[in-house]
Amino acid sequence: MKMNYTDALTLAIDTMATSTDETMQKAVEKLTALRTTYQTRADKRMPMSDEKKAELSAARKAKTAAARAELVAQVVPILREVITTDMTAKEIYTAASSRLPADMTPNKVQNILLREMAPELIKTEAKGKANTYRLA
Question: How far is Cα 99 from Cα 96, in angstroms, rounded to an integer?
Fold first, then answer.
């Protein structure tokens, strides 16, 4: 059985209500008021429909995609200028770091190389070594 706060308070009130102790009766009054508060809040909350969840998810995805597109549009031209020979992602980052946004890291540069710039790059994989990239 899943128990929420209202159920727990009801159980506590029912257990304590049989006592004749004055302190217990005051506690029952306080717990009853607290239960009423929880019930009122629960009644005001509206469950979110599946359509609304899907709408919010789509909006969040669109916002993320727009931010990513803006970042890529800013970074890719810089990376194209920096890549002159076979270079690792860290070397590319080091060469371009002064012109890149402050939050860019070597891993983010590599992600852009692999996802957005893949068609225009030649990636050379060497076992036990870092991959190198050059413009096609």
Answer: 6
Contacts of residues 66-74 at CB distance under 8 Å and 24 or more positions apart, as own/partner, are 71/101, 72/112, 72/116, 74/101
Tell me the whole-structure pTM to 2 decimals: 0.58
Query: Nearest Cα to 17, choosing from 33, 8, 29, 6?
Result: 29
Asked whether residue 64 is assigned to any structural domain, the reply reads yes
Segment 33-54, tens digit of pLDDT: 998 888 877 666 667 788 888 9
- Give the chain's mean pLDDT: 89
Answer yes or no: do 38 and 95 share one domain. no
Tell me the C-alpha distance between 85 and 131, whole Å: 13
How many angstroms separate the CA atoms of 131 and 90, rounded? 10
